[in-house]
Specification:
2 domains, four-stranded mixed beta sheet, 8 helices, seven-stranded mixed beta sheet, homodimer, about 25% strand, Phosphoribosyl-aminoimidazole Synthetase, Chain A, domain 2, 60s Ribosomal Protein L30, Chain: A, alpha+beta
Chain lengths: ~350, ~350
């Protein structure tokens, strides 16, 4: 049997010699040094063991990534898979320990692109000293999958995990930076548009920034506004806590290019995904210190207080417009951009 | 916007109202009662917390499932996703605690089928009292994914995890039952064949059986022979331990229907996937007791000693044929049946 050496074949996902070779040459080298326990990813066993710190709660989160295009301004599906999952741990207040990497690839996918994607993934992990625990590789036939899908499960430890439901009346509502960058950058990069904009995804692991904030205290709730954007995340936080999220529209940091494309396409920047941002609901006593700590970090230099937790409309988000009008910001039916993450 | 109520739409995977409704009506009801910690799947937060037993090693494993067809004789992708992951924990000697469920669905997939799949998944978990920790839902467009793909990450606890590399010279090699059932049943069920056979996948969670065996002691290595079948698993175990797996061909339990279809198609039953079987490498002193314990369990009634660990050809598998010839059983390039799991 002759196999092309630079494209994925069904045998690369079939549990034999070919899969071993793909993993040995194009995946494992990226994860060389980091071990999570006695049986680690280099053992290529049925799973891995995890060494746990003696105190703290274990936190686990999972995400599949089907972003289109696979490579986009500011990152790729590898960056996104790592950052997306570490960010879910971060907003639960959990220090990331390990991540799993399960990849489904379409036959004929370029192996050079696998290398590039796995390297992007590994680079994000290295920043936060996170190990790959174990992985899985499957191949689907031509036309059975559009390119590549990656699932990651993150495992972390929190002194005490922070919920997205913990908002209390009087708390300040902070965002860690500009809103809408990822969604609008992806949209601009889609083939249908091919807009030559300066838009760039914000995809990044926010744990280094969040870690600097947690010791200050007073963080009652956190969430990363991914699919459905700020609108979905705030609505969920309002519902779960039974509070009202009172937002000042003018206080929401939005890049000019994002606002411009948003106007052009009629898509709200508040409803599209962010991949390197957090919403923090913070006790009034520590809100200023938390804001200062966020701004002190490169990822948080545009952080802002965008509102306050009230009680006028339990479970709802109310936005005050620049001219003083008030309107509900509803839970979107869904993110207007498909395959955004 | 009007949405068909019985088919998946892109908005079902877009992080808003529609996704919440899908999860509330068709997914969460199946997982009602089981909780893993303070923040569980019903919180629908960014992740979940895990209550851990005070002793033992944490074991983690991940798998994506792209089986075709989605429903097959003996199970479906839900059964397979649950059993496949619990089995990876089981062969590491780990009691399963929790599992994640990340689903990628093609637009227009029937929601009734989602219900059926999630119920199958939940049924397997219930047998072993395993909780769903958290999940994720993504939707891809028509033609971007062939139906559905499921990723699961399992988390378990082992007193001391068992490796697949632990074989020692003189150990007995056991299989817990008949070989080749899953692969040949799937092949027979494929549209290209549509063979009306009595073949049925062996998909099942083997933890209840493995649990009954472990206290006997002497289990030096375990592995579940999935993709690439018995041939791939034995070769991996031989290589990692530097031993020789000496197999008696006549001792390998194979159903008549499996052997028949295998002859017909020219595909070796030793190279196709099993989804409810384990290979156990056991110290000679306890091998008989382990065999008896396996046979005492419904899933293990066809268990057999199929050979012995030797040293004649380090890293290789040697098969003695019924007429006394000896040949190498090589590592297959890959499983001959694509999308087998």
């Amino acid at each position: 049997m002759t196999e092309s050496t630079d494209r994925i074949s069904p045998l690369h996902g079939a549990g034999g010699e070919m899969m071993e070779q793909l993993l040995a040459e194009h995946v494992m080298p990226h994860f060389a040094a980091r071990s999570v326990g006695r049986i680690d990813v280099t053992a290529m066993d049925d799973g891995a063991t995890l060494r746990l710190p003696s105190d703290g709660e274990l936190v686990v989160t999972t995400d599949s990534h089907v972003v289109k295009p696979v490579f986009f301004p500011g990152g790729d599906i590898g960056t996104l898979a790592a950052a997306g999952t570490l960010n879910d741990l971060a907003v639960m207040g959990a220090r990331p320990l390990a991540i799993t990497l399960a990849v489904i690839i379409e036959e004929d996918f370029a192996i050079a692109d696998i290398d590039r994607i796995v390297k992007s993934f590994a680079d994000v992990l290295a920043e936060s000293d996170v190990a790959v625990a174990c992985g899985d590789t499957k191949v689907m036939g031509r036309g059975e999958l559009d390119g590549i899908a990656i699932n990651t499960t993150g495992i972390g430890v929190a002194e005490r995990a922070i919920r997205d439901a913990g908002a209390e009346e009087g708390d300040a509502i902070l965002v860690s930076g500009t809103i809408g960058d990822h969604g609008m950058a992806l949209l601009a990069a889609r083939e249908a548009f091919r807009l030559d904009t300066e838009l760039c995804s914000d995809v990044a692991s926010i744990w280094p920034m969040i870690r600097s904030v947690l010791p200050i205290g007073g963080v009652h709730a956190m969430k990363d506004p991914t699919r459905g954007g700020l609108a979905a995340a705030l609505n969920e936080m309002a519902r779960k806590s039974g509070t009202t999220m009172e937002i000042e529209q003018a206080a929401i940091p939005i890049r000019e290019a994002v606002a411009g494309l948003s106007d052009l396409l009629g898509i709200s920047p508040l409803e599209v995904a962010n991949e390197g941002k957090a919403i923090l609901i913070v006790a009034p006593e520590t809100a200023e210190d938390v804001l200062a700590a966020l701004r002190n970090h490169p990822l948080g230099r545009d952080a802002a207080v965008i509102g306050r937790v009230g009680s006028s409309h339990p479970g709802r988000v109310v936005v005050t417009t620049p001219v003083g009008g008030r309107r509900f910001l509803d839970m979107p039916l869904g993110d207007p951009v498909p395959r955004i993450c």
